[in-house]
Amino acid sequence: MIYFDNNATTRVDEKVLEAMLPYLKEDYANPSSMYDFAKKPAAAIKEARGKIKDFLGANNEKEIFFTSCGSESANMAIKGTLSCNKEKKHIITTKVEHPCVLNLYKALEKDGYETDYISVNSEGELDIEELKSKIRKDTALVSVMYANNENGVINPVKEIADIVKTISPETIFFVDAVQASGKIPINVKDTQIDMLGISGHKFHAPKGVGALYVRPSVRLTPLINGGHQERGLRAGTENVPYIVGIGKAAELAMDSLDYEMKEVKRLRDKLEEGILKNVFNARLNSSVSNRVPNTSNIGFEYVEGELILLHLSDIGVCASSGSACTSGSLEPSHVLRAMGIPFTALHGSIRFSLSRFSTEKEVDYVIEKLPDIMDKITAISPYQEELMKLKQRRG
Amino acid sequence: MWEYSDKVLDHYRNPRNVGKIDDADIVGEAGSLACGDSLKLYIKLDGNIIKDAKFQTFGCGSAVASSSILTEMIIGKTLEEVKKITNKDIADALGGLPQEKMHCSVMGQEALEDALKKYYKEEDEWEELELTGSSDNHDKVICTCFNVTEGQILEAVKINGLKTVEEVTNYTKAGGACGRCKGAIKNILDEYWKNETPVELTPTQKILKISKVIDQQISPQLQKDGGDIELIDVEGNTVKVKLTGMCSGCKNASMTIKNFVESVLKDKVDSRLEVEQV
Fold first, then answer.
1. Shortest CA distance from A314: residue in chain B
2. Which residues on B lie below 8 Å from A327 (Cβ)?
3. Residue A52 sits in a domain of what CATH number?
4. The domain containing residue A290 runs over which residues?
5. Ramachandran angles phi, psi of B40, nearest 5°
6. Whether residues B267 and B177 fall in one domain
7. Is A316 left (phi over 0), alpha (psi -120 to 50) or beta?
8. Which of A241, B106, B231, B240 could bridge B87 with an S-S bond, Cβ 3.0-4.6 Å?
9. Residue A307's closest CA among B126, B31, B57?
10. Angle between helices A99-110 and A70-82 (to 10 degrees)
11. What is the pLDDT of residues A238-266, one digit of tens each?
12. A1 lies in a domain?
């Protein structure tokens, strides 16, 4: 099996699992308890918090809050800050955000919020000028993803934070860094970012644990009320083994950042070039260099994405598609549509996302097999004339 | 991951009758590239019989499978026979489709209908053509995103007994994009089911009504083909019938029951009725 869908989720690193196991077995105490038995889990949480602090370049462990996932981190940040600033009713985000932010914004619209969604260009790069023009004194919140999950494009969040704070110092700036963590260095210290969310399972921790960085000056109301855990901002007994897991995964991710940015990028580039060379109806949906090193989004013209995925799955290759058919919704990806990808390629767009566990052999296999699959699928297409023209044009 | 039946998997992996018939007598089309799936159905006739059929599909696994099995279902049949094929038959032949994928079977039916319309228009027999679906002229476009007309929605509602907006979206795609037409779809459903929801009949009234519809509307049709039908019993919503005459040994008997007898009874008496051959 070849797993090229690491933006969906990743395999748990063996070392992460090893670090977690004691807390699923013998060291099961509630970290809030008073006896000695609870000291080890309490210390483990503290250690994990320290690792996430380092991972995100925060100043202090107290700025790190554990959550259950990336969506919870985003909801805690956005809802938490808005309910502390009820007089401001204007919020901004991008057209290409993850649904956990976009659908939250849609829900907030129903609660009376005025929203602006910033556009991207055909390469998926954010329109910074448009963003500038939308920020107002009564803008409560700006939310921008660090890297896009579908095309991998990295947003200049440090610069955006400066822009936001220059125009409106009181406006809160949240960054959804779920797709950036583990792929590129994150350092909130030298920035004016107010809050930043991550999710463990995107960098080889298990599903079910995330974290949120919150600058000390930012006021939040909790999503979950209850006990004193997470300094009262996120009640509920700490998920000790998973918190240990995300801490260990962050440590490993920091160690392999160099590898990600050099070797994973080399493999990604090889895959990309190989496919574009071997498959006549392939086009790169975003080619900017400013992308996370593991992601490639390729449109295959005049064929439909789910069919490609089914055939890939038949030869043991896992990838994902922006096609409508795969998601059960009837519309193709909002990200690819915001980029204005021509509809000839929109429905046949495939995302390949690698990890540090991907190998050269796997990349070579996909490059070798994809042309056969594409021949089979294009043979069924009603757009034979168009495909023929494409073939001639690309030689 | 969708739960596709073995038949769907087989048909997308090894699609039958792929390609173009250069001297096709009729070409039916449905869907569009922009909407994410489209189908071209080529038909070669020998008199009234479909001698050969081929297809080209742009779409997902279930769209390819629906097109592929449709060609198998129509080759060797007469035009009269194939005009009774509904999307439900296509889905059934595939061993079922996931609810969200039913629109793939609808695309197959639409391409077939398009082919038949073109043929009968050419032959000037359009007026006589009674498709299984709605013959009313509901050309008004309800869903502008996917270009779905009122007629297409009503047809899917009627054939598949759809009750909710979500079901209509699964079957026709209408309402699946911007969602602005959901209110209009709801109105169509309300209107349709208002007319359709019968006053609850007593068992005796129900049997009498079924018997009357069979005698007046179903039996005469079957008699034209040298067959007939006999009402045996009604248990709850299950209508038990026996096909007689030419119909009794006909290999298309089960299709006749489902597509003709059942759909007429659903239409005229109660949409919950199911017909069984005994």
1. B13
2. none
3. 3.40.640.10
4. 258-377
5. -120, 125
6. no
7. left
8. B106
9. B57
10. 30
11. 999 999 999 999 999 999 999 999 999 99
12. no
Inter-chain touch A302–B12, beta carbons under 8 Å: no
Do A188 and A61 belong to one domain? yes
- Pairwise CA distance, residues A194 & A168, whole Å: 13
Q: Does A70 reside within a domain?
A: yes
> Residues A375-386: pLDDT tens digits?
999 999 999 999
Higher per-residue confidence, A333 vs B131? A333
Tell me how far the alpha carbon of residue A111 is from its chain's centroid. Answer: 27
- Read off the pLDDT of each residue in A357-371 and give the average, rounded to a whole number: 98
Choose from A88-97, B95-104, B234-243 the range with maximum mean pLDDT.
A88-97
- Give which of B250, B276, B263, B218 is closest to B78, Cα–Cα: B250
Nearest to A307 among B12, B173, B176 (CB): B12
Q: Under DSSP, is residue A284 helix (H, G, I), strand (E, B) or coil? A: strand
Asked if A380 lies within 8 A of B64 by C-beta distance, the reply is yes
B11 shares its domain with B87: yes
The band of A323, judged by pLDDT with boundaries at 50, 70 and 90, is low
Q: % helix / strand / coil in chain B, to the nearest 5?
A: 45, 20, 35
Report chain A residues whose CB lies below 8 A from the CB of B177: 330-331
Cα–Cα distances (Å) from B203 to A217, B210, B218, B238, B274, in that order, read 74, 11, 21, 12, 15
- Domain count for chain B, please give it: 3
Asked if A326 is an interface residue toward chain B (Cβ–Cβ < 8 A), one would say yes
Count of domains for chain A: 2
B187: closest CA of chain A, how far (Å): 21
Return the H-helix or E-strand segment holding A175.
strand A172-176
Q: Say whether A330 and B36 touch across the interface (CB within 8 A).
A: yes
Return residues 38-97 of B near A (CB < 8 Å).
38-40, 56-61, 63-64
Q: A173 lies in a domain? A: yes
Q: How many CB pairs under 8 A join A and B?
A: 71
Whether A385 is covered by a domain: the verdict is no
Tell the burial category of B127 from Cβ atoms under 10 Å away from its Cβ (0-12, 13-18, 19+).
Answer: exposed
For B68, the domain range is: 6-127
Partners of A283 in beta bridges: A299
